[in-house]
Sequence to fold (271 residues):
Amino acid sequence: MKKLFYLLMFAAAFVSCSEEAENLAPEFLTAVLSSNNETLTVTFSEAVYANANMAGALTDANIDVAIEGVDFTYTVTHVAGATTLEIGLTITSVTVGTEVVKVGPKSATSVYDTEGKAMLADAEVISGTLVRDMGIISKWYSSGSNVAPLLVTYFQVDSIYAEFKENKTYVVRQFNIGNTSGTPDVIFDGTFEIQKSNVGEIWTIVLTQNNPYAAVASGIFEIKTGPEVLWYEVAQTSGTQNVPPTPAGGFGSTNGGTLGNWNIQKYIRIP
Fold:
């Protein structure tokens, strides 16, 4: 009986030691977003490589990134054998602040540890929510020195109320100098598309105007902070020879820069 007890104890110890010696697959631990939605730092449970022979840094060929409902591209920066990597995110659409970033291996042969054990194909780590960035979608007001000099000089504009809605429609109410009626002199409406550029915080915008006449305009905008002011510069391109401003050219680049700051409109956000 005593001999059987010792045999059972030996078998249990052997199984326990075998389990401890078994090499577990590498796992994700955390995925931490930067405050500007531009960088995601991913941490693994151990040193990782692109190949089973302890060689190769992970790249976007090894790592899959998904953000549902968001347009983006990404790059992966990693040093072979490091336990962390950085994912650079270039987001080109609005973010409402509820989206998360999901990270996983491209396949079952994409991420390895020091002993050649591959990460499971269905491994995944999920970040916290993205920071809300709605671009121009909000209500805005412009008056006084914020009104573009071109609008004051040629169209006698006193102030403008603009609303860009989440359904990609807009309404702009223009009040001319001397108007005390409370009724806009002109109401513009239509649809718009926006996309964040790779130049700083500048976005591009294309407007398809329905009223008071059909037209297409395009240009750029940026929400500058301290205090917050929307810089907005567009030019009508349909039926004209206008050349709209570009992110690369920056503000003041309408028609190749010939207008200087005359076409730059500035707004403050209103409730």
